[in-house]
């Protein structure tokens, strides 16, 4: 079944009480891709990944991992995962936990290489309760990799790591991707998504708001913001050259544009005045926010 | 399953507190209580009676602590995230729970055997080999009640409450169920309370065997009822709050 996607989510809806965490989300990830789920905290990344792993039953939707039910795919040894709320058992040594988990797989990752890859050489004899946050995270990575699974699902894997730890971690991930593993990870760090992923899926309010190559997303991110006050009608603004999104509050119009010059030329040609005109370069963060926080009327119109 | 079972047995077995409260303490109490209460007996036969009573009570006490202590730990494994982690490892569904039930049941045996040996060789309790084996067998079988109770509490409570419950519950069941002193010496109100505890009926299994007959039907029925209620509670709680659900 090599043609079946590594991860296939259709119409996934997750609710917590009245809150909709994931809203009819579709996501298909072919084998071998490295995909970042990028979004702010609470955007629905974790809920999507947890539902995909079968950790809870979603309100609606269908999930397949490697063409199977999540639980089945996991039991077949096809999936490794680092969870946000996963952890290690107390009163054990790292080596014992690793041995236990490796033995669950028919064809586990060779142990020496696994230790080097996860960066936990020398930790095998360590009490689990005595690990630092970063060490703990690396042991959890080793558990995720223990079965050399074709699909890796990582939920904010670097949250407890320092800068150096992060770099080592992502070097490892690039190595895995090069060996053909499918890597799906959630992050709220743009730089991580940019450096590692072939494809970036931006999630906001439980929906996919952008999906493309890191470079493509970056070009939207690297655009400019043109602002001015506009008391009158706004029709046609989206059709201006370069404009990727229209936002703003009250009279203030905010145009995200990939071609500030073209946008301005067109604006000046059709309007007598542009009160309060500003052209700003968007930082990565600003532009990401621009992607993910649109005015509600625009979102409901989509 | 075997891997996980051995893994869990090792973890609990190397916990010194667990070993102390489920094996060492009941063994020491067996000697102490028999000395204290046995001293009141004026005849050798009377002393023998106290020796028998306390070896049964302390076997029950140790077994209850062992069964509860080994199973309430579910709450700790949930709070660390280990049970959630196990969900993304190839382990058949229900294995983690089944293993903890087995661990609870198995770890009852050392308590029973050690206390029985202390009763026989330190206190000189005089029973035939058949009675000793019967005693261990019925108390082992009956411990299912406390394994079920521990699983129910382990799934329902957070780790702090679970830690407290292990100690408090073992003590309360022993004190109220008449394991630390004979129920006969209690005022009638407390006798009524004792009869409402599963620990009283559990020890009654052993007292029946020591008296030379099989456990009575009412004793067995009461214990089955307790086991059914606790198992049902465990089932209901784990449906609502699966083992891999995030703690809190």
Overview of the molecule:
The complex is a heterodimer of chains A (302) and B (248). Chain A folds into 2 domains: 7-216, P-loop containing nucleotide triphosphate hydrolases (Rossmann fold), CATH 3.40.50; 223-281, Alpha-Beta Plaits (2-Layer Sandwich), CATH 3.30.70. Chain A is 33% helix and 27% strand. Chain A contains 11 helices and 13 strands. In chain A, α4 (111-118) packs across α5. With 248 residues, chain B is mostly helical. Chain B has one domain. Chain B has 12 helices and no strands. At the A-B interface, α2, β5, α3 and α5 of A face α1 and α5 of B.
Our estimate of the beta-strand percent of chain B is under 5%
Strand content of chain A: 25-35%
Mean pLDDT over the full residue set of chain B: 93
Question: How would you classify the helix and strand content of chain A by structural class?
Answer: alpha/beta
Q: What is the overall number of helices of chain A?
A: 11
| Main sheet summary of chain B | none
Shape of chain A: elongated
Spatial arrangement of strands, main beta sheet of chain A: 5-6-7-3-8-9
Overall geometry of chain B: elongated
Hey, which two chains have the biggest interface?
A: A-B, 33 and 27 residues
Mean pLDDT across the residues of chain A is 87
The CATH architecture designation of the largest domain in chain A is: 3-Layer(aba) Sandwich
CATH superfamily of the largest domain in chain A: P-loop containing nucleotide triphosphate hydrolases
Distance between the termini of chain B: 28 Å
Number of strands of chain A: 13
């Amino acid at each position: 079944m090599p043609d079946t996607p590594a991860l296939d989510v259709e119409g996934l809806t997750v609710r917590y009480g009245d809150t909709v965490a994931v809203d009819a989300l579709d996501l298909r990830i072919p084998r071998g891709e490295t995909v970042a789920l990028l979004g702010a905290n609470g955007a629905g990344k974790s809920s999507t990944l947890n539902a995909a792993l079968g950790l809870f039953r979603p309100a609606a939707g269908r999930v397949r991992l490697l063409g199977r039910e999540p639980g089945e795919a996991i039991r077949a040894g096809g999936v490794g995962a680092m969870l946000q709320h996963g952890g290690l058992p107390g009163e054990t040594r790292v080596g014992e936990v690793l041995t236990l988990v490796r033995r669950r797989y028919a064809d586990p990752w060779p142990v020496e290489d696994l230790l080097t890859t996860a960066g936990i050489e020398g930790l095998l004899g360590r009490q689990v309760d005595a690990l630092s946050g970063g060490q703990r995270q690396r042991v959890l990575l080793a558990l995720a990799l223990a079965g050399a699974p074709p699909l890796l699902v990582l939920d904010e894997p670097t949250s407890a790591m320092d800068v150096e730890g992060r770099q080592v971690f992502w070097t490892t991930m690039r190595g895995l991707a090069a060996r053909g593993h499918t890597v799906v990870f959630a992050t709220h760090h743009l730089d991580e998504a940019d450096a590692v992923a072939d494809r970036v899926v931006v999630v906001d309010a439980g929906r996919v708001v952008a999906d493309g190559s890191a470079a493509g997303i970056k070009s939207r991110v690297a655009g400019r913001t043109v602002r001015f006050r506009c008391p009158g009608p706004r029709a046609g603004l989206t059709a201006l050259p370069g404009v990727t999104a229209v936002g703003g509050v009250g009279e203030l119009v905010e145009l995200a544009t990939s071609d500030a010059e073209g946008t301005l030329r067109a604006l000046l040609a059709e309007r007598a005045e542009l009160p309060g005109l500003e052209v700003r370069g968007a930082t990565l963060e600003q532009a990401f926010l621009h992607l993910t926080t649109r005015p509600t009327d625009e979102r409901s119109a989509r | 399953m075997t891997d996980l079972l051995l893994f869990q047995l090792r973890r609990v077995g190397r916990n010194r507190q667990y070993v102390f409260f489920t094996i060492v303490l009941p063994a020491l109490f067996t000697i102490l209580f028999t000395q204290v209460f046995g001293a009141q007996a004026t005849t050798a036969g009377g002393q023998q009676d106290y020796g028998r009573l306390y070896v049964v009570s302390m076997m029950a006490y140790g077994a209850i602590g062992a069964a509860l202590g080994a199973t309430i730990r579910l709450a700790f494994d949930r709070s660390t995230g280990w049970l959630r982690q196990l969900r993304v490892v190839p382990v058949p569904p229900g294995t983690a729970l089944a293993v903890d039930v087995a661990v609870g049941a198995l770890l009852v045996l050392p308590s029973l055997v050690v206390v029985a040996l202390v009763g026989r060789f330190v206190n000189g309790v005089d029973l035939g080999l058949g009675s000793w084996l019967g005693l261990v067998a019925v108390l082992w079988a009956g411990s299912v009640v406390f394994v079920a109770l521990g699983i129910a509490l382990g799934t329902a409570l957070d780790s702090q409450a679970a830690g407290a419950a292990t100690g408090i519950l073992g003590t309360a069941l022993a004190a109220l169920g008449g394991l630390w002193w004979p129920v006969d010496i209690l005022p009638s109100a407390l006798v009524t309370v004792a009869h409402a505890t599963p620990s009283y009926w559990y020890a009654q299994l052993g007292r029946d065997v020591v008296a030379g007959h099989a456990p009575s039907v009412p004793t067995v029925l009461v214990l089955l009822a307790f086991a059914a209620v606790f198992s049902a509670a465990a089932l209901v709680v784990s449906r609502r709050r699966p083992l891999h659900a995030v703690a809190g």
